[in-house]
Amino acid sequence: MLNCREATRLISQSMDAKLPWHRRWALKGHLLYCIWCRRYDAQVQILRKAARELPPENLETQPQKLSREEKDQLRARLQAGLKNPPPSE
Amino acid sequence: MDELEHLKPAGLHAQSPASDLPPGPGLDPERWVEEYGDILFGFAAARVRNRAVAQDLVQETFLAAIKSSKSFAGRSTEQSWLFGILRNKLVDYYRLQKREVAFTDLDSSLSEEQGAFGESGLGRDGWVLKHTPKPWRTPDGTLVSKEFQAVFKGCLSRLPDKVALVFLLREIDGVSSEEICKDLGVSPNNLWVMLHRARMGLRRCLAMHWFENNEKPGETP
């Protein structure tokens, strides 16, 4: 019989790979009587849905920006890069 | 044809003697830095958690774009093309870091599980009463609301670097498990342990700061 620590691990595993039938079966059995793990299961699914709604280019709590100096530096390096002819194919 | 290039009048291309570069609005590092610098930097910074490295990656992205500007056939937008180059640079970076990815011992109790399981009514390693999951309500629009997403981002930032990255790649960037294992040099076992740690940590954080919190920002008391 599974305990809750094992069940939560299996729940996570099942989100990314198919569990072997005996584990899948054991997990189903555990979820029949354990409302907390049932909630855990529902909640990590919500996490997955929530993650998919996040904008991939804006994940920081404080949006990370380049400073003026860093941008100047970057521009200078790119100008230097432009001056070097790219290798002819 | 190439040997005649250097005989072209210097006027128009005085600043770029490499005259086989296509002229025109496409190749303008001034504009690129202003238009895309921050967004590329933000994308990289969230995935390497190191400002200096993120800057280098952005620089390498622009330099690579300059070198391969001929291959930009205008099929996609300029921005998505640059993002494509950046993503490749990120994968190259992860591969370089491979040896430093910490191995996680499966048998030991994970720090994210700490306190959550113990002796309880359900026997050994059942949920401890204080930490049992409570029901979550998700009224329409919750998951896309700015307030919720701010809390989610905060919880994500609290995860250890590698754990956060793995969750980010898998759940936000939609990279397959196989590819993550390959790029980061982790075994499938390591991967699911890290994903499990991420989910345990995020669930607890969101329970505390949103779903079981009665004083959410934006809610009238």
Task: Break the fold down into its secondary structure elements and pairings.
The complex is a heterodimer of chains A (89) and B (221).
Chain A lengths: L3 H11 L6 H13 L1 H19 L14 H16 L6
Helix pairs in contact in A: 1-2, 1-3, 2-3
Chain B lengths: L1 H4 L23 H20 L2 H17 L10 H20 L19 E4 L2 E5 L18 H13 L2 H12 L4 H8 L3 H24 L10
Antiparallel strand pairs in B: 1-2
Helix pairs in contact in B: 2-3, 2-4, 3-4, 5-8, 6-8
Overview of the molecule:
Chain A has 89 residues and is mainly alpha-helical. Chain A has a domain at 1-53. Chain A contains four helices and no strands. Chain A is elongated. Chain A starts with a helix and ends in a 6-residue tail after the last helix. The model of chain A has no long low-confidence stretch (mean pLDDT 90). Chain B is mostly helical. In chain B, strands 1-2 form a two-stranded antiparallel sheet. Chain B is elongated. Residues 1-25 of chain B have low confidence and may be disordered. The interface between A and B is large, with 53 and 76 residues.
At CATH level 3, the topology of the largest domain in chain B is: Arc Repressor Mutant, subunit A
Question: Strand-residue fraction of chain B?
Answer: under 5%
Q: What's the CATH class label of the largest domain in chain B?
A: Mainly Alpha
- How many structural domains can be distinguished in the coordinates of chain B? 2
Please tell me what the overall shape of chain B is: elongated
Provide the helix percentage of chain A. 55-70%
Measured by residues with Cβ under 8 Å of the partner chain's Cβ, the largest interface is: A-B, 53 and 76 residues
Radius of gyration of chain A: 25 Å
Q: Quote the average pLDDT of chain A.
A: 90
CATH superfamily of the largest domain in chain B: Winged helix-like DNA-binding domain superfamily/Winged helix DNA-binding domain
Taking the sheet with the most strands of chain B, its summary is: 2 strands, antiparallel
Rounded to the nearest angstrom, the distance between the terminal CA atoms of chain A is: 64 Å
Strand order of the largest sheet of chain B: 1-2
The total of beta strands of chain B comes to 2
The number of helical runs of chain B is 8
